[in-house]
Amino acid sequence: MRHDPDLRLKGGSLVVTCLLLVFFCLSSAANTVNAQTFAYVTHVGDDLVSVINTDTNSVVTTIRVGPNPAGLAITPDGTRVYVTNQVDHTVSVIETATNTVIATISVGSDTTGGFPQDVAITPDGTRAYVGGREGFAVIDTVTNTATAIPLAGALFIGVAITPDGTCVYAAPPRATRGFVNVNYSQHKFSSTPDRLGY
User: Fold this and answer.
1) CA geometry: angle at 122 spanning 108 and 191, to 5°?
2) Widest CA span in the chain
3) Is pLDDT of 43 > 80?
């Protein structure tokens, strides 16, 4: 069965995945900056990401990713988009300069870290946190490799990182709210139900 595009709006009940990317082009003749803004939108049923020019409200291109794409996040420097693919437990990496998939990263399995939902990237752009079934995956954005972090009993459907990069907040739908401390050396959760130390 085909599904409508997955459009997830922050703070609303409508399911929305749409992120904006602003490109700045320096004009050597006039020494002025012209901004082009693009929105990246996932289409669950079609396994696509649309790129929309928000100045003209027109689709510039579509990019084929993995099956049932859900969440996406753009790196702080605007060069890459990380897209979660629910069915095959992967994340597609899109290069924004060419709007092509340059890597596909396995982030889990049917039992741990699979069915990835949301993704958030640290302010320094070095890590992407992916919430999934029974755990997380932490992607090194330099090598595009993932470290699995199991956490039984929840499907993490929302992930957000504080502006200073010290905490990752995760939203399990049927459990107490929790957050992950960003500590790249420990790779462990604490035993407190609503506090996840990493």
Assistant:
1) 60
2) 60
3) yes
Q: In what order do the strands lie in the sheet with 48-53?
A: 18-27, 32-43, 48-53, 58-64
- Read off the DSSP letter of residue 16: B
Residue range 113-155, pLDDT digits in tens = 678 989 999 999 999 999 888 778 899 999 999 988 877 667 7
Q: At 122, is the secondary structure helix, strand, or coil?
A: coil
SS3 29: coil
Decide if 95 contacts 82 (C-beta within 8 A): no
- Give the CATH superfamily of 18-197: YVTN repeat-like/Quinoprotein amine dehydrogenase (2.130.10.10)
Contacts 24+ apart (CB under 8 A), 18-23: 19/72, 19/73, 19/74, 19/81, 20/54, 21/74, 21/78, 21/81, 21/96, 22/78, 23/78, 23/96
Structure tokens at 128: 């992407």
Residue 183 has pLDDT above 50, yes or no: no
